[in-house]
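WARN no homologs supplied; continuing
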Amino acid sequence: MMAKNFSLATTAVMLMLGCTAVPSTNPKTSQADAVTTIANTEVKSVLRTSQTLPVATNPKADTKSRIGSFISGEHATSGKAKIVQENGTYFIEFDQTFKTSENGPDLFVILHRSPDILKVSKPPDYRIAEGDYVAIAPLKSFNGKQRYEIPANIQSDGYQSVAVWCRKYNATFGFAPLSGV
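OK structure emitted
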């Protein structure tokens, strides 16, 4: 019974490997030795093949970006803003030179449809119209490098600038018109 089970197991291994019985030239070589030889050959072949295959790249890992320099609105604002795409997610990034006034409560990072918010708003506070922008997140810091994730339901390509905006007083502190890189 044990020999029959061994023979069935050997046949199963050979079928899994896609091999047929290998005739042996040595009468002392058992069927088990032949299966072991076949299995070792298959493993070496797989290892050799896997070492030569190119590493697959992630098609979603592409990075697209649009960038712009801040223009002051109601308050001095400077630095650069950029929209980048990484692995299918969009982000707004401010560079290390970003700086805006600390004189505003309730400051937000927004995306605006116009490339020149100052032309479509009125001084002295450069109010923006509802429907022309989308609020992304509260401003994290008045200066320095920072990053904001754009929610997946927002199509960033439909917006032409990034702005720092005071929600409480509807005042644009500064904005960065975006252009492709």
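The radius of gyration is 32 Å.
OK
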